[in-house]
Amino acid sequence: MTKAKILLVVIASLFLFWMLRSVGWEAILQHLRMVGWYWPLILLPYLLVNLLDSMSWYFSFGSPPTGLTIRYLFFNRLAGEAINILTPMASLGGEPVKAMLLQKKGVSLTNSTASLVISKGIMALSMVLYILLGLALAPFLFHLSSAWLWGLLAAALVLGGGALGFVLLQRYGLCQLGLAVLERCRFLPGRLKEKEEAICRLDAQMSTFYRQHGRKFFLALGLYFLSWLIHGLEVYIIFYLLGHPIGLVTALCLDALATLIGGLAFFIPGNLAVQDGGIILLTIGLHLGSLLGAACSVIRRLREGFWLAVGLVALAYDR
């Protein structure tokens, strides 16, 4: 699986290089220069995104351990997300790193793992809500055929069904169900069977959260949804700085649909090339041209690189 994902990264990188080369390097650089000294403005939205996501993660603990702060989770999350981007493990490579750093803070492995799984489920649900908002706006902004709209809606519903199922299974014994399926298929490793007691504790922790902390669940969901809206604000700021301002509603719709396209390629680390290509196609659909889409995509990748570096520094410092 790891070799296959590395191959996908290589193919995606080549495809991204081809897309940007087709648009024209010089033209893209010319648009990037237009941002000038306003680059810090592009970094601010993700600062808010990570803060809101850290707050949501904090509420995912149900009863947060003593001494655990949102500030610590902020840098922990940056470190873990940096590993997510760099490793060929889709969006899962950094989760063990987050749990390991929490253990150094005195949080039990069961508690930290449960919070991460719960947070992932809530984030996925909020993403689907954001995508559905974008799809509701799309007919008023894009000239898409009904077949395209229905196809995008079907893809969103598939993602939504998966996210909802993931959350519901957490409430009713996700890990034990997985063990039962592996055992029935005679594919259950002995070492995993030995950890059955710890796995049962993990299931109990997640089930307790959903049964006793419903209010925190909806609070975490709202915070994650707000962080997705700020992604749309980021697109609005980028196009404004590129000298082609678009409406905030248009920016939200564009980003939500790009998120949908990227979500379908979750197995490619960083959604490399897929989300970039989606942004370019969507800007063409908005009659903004491929050049603006490519410039927007490159700017978002540069922003991603900046916060990736901050995450690696945070990881080195915590170690």
UniProtKB/TrEMBL annotation:
Keywords: Cell membrane, Membrane, Transmembrane, Transmembrane helix. The chain crosses the membrane at residues 38-61, 122-142, 148-169, 217-242, 248-267, 279-300. It is a multi-pass membrane protein. The keyword Chaperone does not apply. It is found in: Cell membrane. InterPro entries: L-PG_synthase/AglD (IPR022791). The keyword Membrane applies. One of its GO terms (cellular component) is plasma membrane. PANTHER family: UPF0104 MEMBRANE PROTEIN MJ1595. This is Lysylphosphatidylglycerol synthetase/UPF0104. It comes from Desulfobacca acetoxidans (strain ATCC 700848 / DSM 11109 / ASRB2).
